[in-house]
Amino acid sequence: MRYLISTLIVLAVTITIFAQGANAKTIDSGELIKASSPAVYYYFDGKRYVFPNEDVYFSWYDNFDDVNIVSDATLASVPLGGNVTYRPGTKLVKIVSDPKVYMIAENNVLSWITSEADAVTLYGTDWSGEVRDVSDALFLDYKMGDAMTDLSNINEDWKSLIKYSYPFYASVQKAIIAEMSIGDIDDFLHPSGMVLIDTDEYGYSATTTAGLDELYVFFMNNSAGWTVQLDYFHGYSSGTARLLNFSKAVGDTFAHRSIVISSEDAEGSAREILFHEITFPKGYLSYPGAVTINYVKGDYDVEQALVTSASSEEVENWYNSVGATLGWNKAEPIMDTEDGFIYNRMENPGLNYSLQQVLIDGSQMPEFVGLVLIGTELNKTIK
C-alpha cells in the first residue's frame, strides 16, 4: 500500500498533460517557453520564471529540445514570477563579497560548508570547479539555513539529491506549498496515542499501534453528519488496507473526509493513518468513491491524487454524468497508453476551469484504480 501511495503522490506532482488542438498546442504549467528573443522561461501557475544565465538553465535541462515557441504578444501577457535558481545539489554558490561557499538543498536553502574536507566528501576533489559566484541581487532568491558542521547529519536523501535529475523546476511548486498555512492536528479527527509524521492544512499522516478494527470504529463513530461514500477493505501479500471516504454539503460546494488505514508488517503490530479533510472549490469534481492520497491547491490550480476500488469505466462514467449537471463537457481522451494510463480532459467554460484526469489501471496497481486530477484556470493556460 505504501508503494501505491508514494506512486500517486509522485504522479500528482510530476505528471504534465499535453492537449493538442487543431491550430495550437496547449502549454501547461511545468513547460518551457520562449518568443522571438533568445530568452527561455519556465512557465508555471500562470507566470514565467527567468533563467538568469545558461549555467542555471543547464543545471535543470540537458538541451533546448522541449522549448515551446509562443508569440511575442503571448509572452508579454504572462507576468514574471521570479528567477530560477540553480537546481539543488548541482552547484555550490557564493557571493563575491564573502568567501563562504554554500551547498543548495531543497527549497533553495543554503548551508555553509565549513571545511574543504567536507566539500571534498560531498563534491569530490574537483569541488572548487562547481563553485559559482552569484550576484548580490540573485543571492536573495536563496534562503539561509544552518551551517554544515557535521556530515553525519547528511542522510542518503541529500546524497541522492546531488545526482538526481529533476524533470521540472520542483522548487517553484514546493515554494508555493510552503507558503500555505500548516494544519493544526487539533483541527482534524484523530485517535489518541498516535505518532504524528506530517501535517498540512488538509490533514496528516501518522503511525499507531491501535488495532485496525479499533481505528475503523473510531472514524465511523466520529463522522456523524457525513455520508459514507467508500468503505473498502483490501488484503494483500504483505499487509492490509482500509479505505474510507465520507462526504457532506458545505454551502454551495462539498467536502470529503478521507482515511487510509494500512499495515505493512507481517505481524500487523503497527498501522499508518493518512487523513484528509478537504472543502473543494465550487464546481470542482472529485470522485466520492475514492480516498485522497495527496491534495495541493495553488492560486490557479488544484492537484489531487486518489485511489478507488471502482473500475476506470465507473470513474469516467461518474465524471461524465455528474459533470454534465454542473456544466462540464464530456471527458475527451488525450491519449491511452499500453501500461494502463488513460488521459482525459474536461472543461467548464462557466467556471473558466479545465480538469485533466489521469487514470492508472491494470498492472500498475492490481485491484485499484489510481486517479490524478489536475485542475487549471483556463485563462492561466497558454494555447
Provide the fold topology.
Layout: H1 2-14, E1 31-34, E2 41-44, E3 47-50, H2 54-58, E4 67-69, H3 72-77, E5 80-83, E6 92-95, E7 98-104, E8 109-112, H4 116-123, E9 131-133, H5 136-139, E10 143-144, H6 156-163, H7 170-179, E11 195-200, E12 203-208, H8 212-221, E13 227-236, E14 239-250, E15 253-263, E16 271-279, E17 291-297, E18 301-308, H9 312-325, E19 332-336, E20 341-348, E21 353-360, E22 369-377
Task: Give an account of the 3D structure.
This protein has 383 residues and is of the alpha+beta class. Residues 11-24 and 162-177 have low confidence and may be disordered. Strand 11 (195-200) and strand 12 form a beta hairpin. It has helices at 2-14, 54-58, 72-77, 116-123, 136-139, 156-163, 170-179, 212-221, 312-325; strands at 31-34, 41-44, 47-50, 67-69, 80-83, 92-95, 98-104, 109-112, 131-133, 143-144, 195-200, 203-208, 227-236, 239-250, 253-263, 271-279, 291-297, 301-308, 332-336, 341-348, 353-360, 369-377. The two termini are 38 Å apart. The chain is globular. A six-stranded antiparallel beta sheet has the order 11-12-16-15-14-13, with helices on one face. Strands 17-18-22-21-20-19 form a six-stranded antiparallel beta sheet, with helices on one face. It has a five-stranded mixed beta sheet with strand order 4-1-2-3-5, with no helix packed on it. It has three domains: 2-11 and 178-380, no CATH class; 31-85; 92-165. Helices cover 20% and strands 36% of the residues.
- Give the total of beta strands: 22
Helical segment tally?
Answer: 9
Strand order of the largest sheet: 11-12-16-15-14-13
Amount of beta strand = 35-45%
What structural category do the secondary elements indicate? alpha+beta
Which regions are unreliable across 5 or more consecutive residues at pLDDT < 50? 11-24, 162-177
Cα distance spanning the termini: 38 Å
Give the proportion of residues in helices. Answer: 10-25%
